Amino acid sequence: MQRWTASDIPDRGGSTAVVTGANGGLGLVTARELARHGARVVLACRDEQRGKEAETRIRAEVPDAELHLARLDLADLSSVREFARAHRSYTGGRLDLLVNNAGVMALPHRRTVDGFEMQFGVNHLGHFALTGLLLPDLLAAPAARVVTVSSFLHALANVDLHDLGSDSRYRRWIAYARSKSANLLFTHELSRRLYRAGRDVLAAAAHPGYAATNLQTAGPRMEGRRSAERVMELGNRLLAQPAEAGALPVLFAATAPGARPDGFYGPGPLGLRGAPRKSWRAPWTRDDTAGELLWAASERLTGVGYGTSGI
């Protein structure tokens, strides 16, 4: 794969995208570059004030950006449903791209509004529900895409189908890895279902490698572990690539003609930094049986079924 940059993004004029977690980091860069190339972009953010600040930042760089700010809290399924009910007023009834970007990392044990372990609830279940609720509009658009952001750290742990909430023993990094494996398993199963149904929607995944965002420091800050926060800050300064580079695999999966169904893209060649390319993934993220079981459990837990969409 030749070196790919944001300048290679095709013209997105006339298209509409929803980007979750667009208030900072990868999400902000992704939203900005999509808007720069002509897309109408819905900034789906939990914190409305930070969302407004992101909107201002994007407009400063892309004065003619067509943006809409909307509240979305993936830790609350009622907020996900409310966003889905209202999204047509944001999108004009057209949705070409959904970027499931928002996430949390290595938090102390917390639960969502609906009682799910926070990392699994936000990173996987919230996006599973959102995708299902928005899928009818994606299916109605020509060549729409769903891009879900995972992590190279998914390799630390497979999804535990018997303990999805890590209730038996909570280890923050293992819980994070399980949620990121769930992102890939969801993409795999969604892609399989779309293919079987003959639907023209591409489901792919991406990861940023080691990118400097506030994701790494949020967990230590919540617990007041200042030394751990400083280690993460130091790693971001010395080792990580900037968010602008980390967002490139996401943008590649979202826009490049070369992206493939169930593809997983990240920086190369070692997966930490560099231009986007096809990424290694753990074999359990392509397990058809596990994908079906996770899908069934996700429908049951969220109350969001995909059957009415015909996949």
Describe the protein's architecture and organization.
- By secondary structure, this protein is an alpha/beta fold.
- The chain starts with 15 loop residues before the first strand and ends in a 9-residue tail after the last helix.
- Helix 3 packs parallel to helix 4.
- The chain has helices spanning 25-36, 48-61, 77-91, 118-140, 172-196, 215-223, 226-238, 243-246, 248-255, 288-302; strands at 16-20, 40-45, 66-71, 97-100, 144-149, 201-206, 264-267, 276-278.
- It has 10 helices and 8 strands.
- The protein has one domain: Rossmann fold, CATH 3.40.50.720.
- Strands 3-2-1-4-5-6-7-8 form an 8-stranded mixed β-sheet, with helices on both faces.
- Helix 1 links the parallel strand 1 (16-20) and strand 2 (40-45).
- Keywords: Oxidoreductase.
CATH architecture: 3-Layer(aba) Sandwich
Q: Quick check: average pLDDT?
A: 92
The CATH superfamily label reads NAD(P)-binding Rossmann-like Domain
Task: List segments where confidence is low: pLDDT < 50 over at least 5 consecutive residues.
Answer: none
Strand percentage lies at 5-15%
Reported for the largest beta sheet, the result is: 8 strands, mixed
Topology:
Layout: E1 16-20, H1 25-36, E2 40-45, H2 48-61, E3 66-71, H3 77-91, E4 97-100, H4 118-140, E5 144-149, H5 172-196, E6 201-206, H6 215-223, H7 226-238, H8 243-246, H9 248-255, E7 264-267, E8 276-278, H10 288-302
Parallel strand pairs: 1-2, 1-4, 2-3, 4-5, 5-6, 6-7
Antiparallel strand pairs: 7-8
Helix pairs in contact: 1-2, 3-4, 4-5, 4-10, 5-10, 6-7
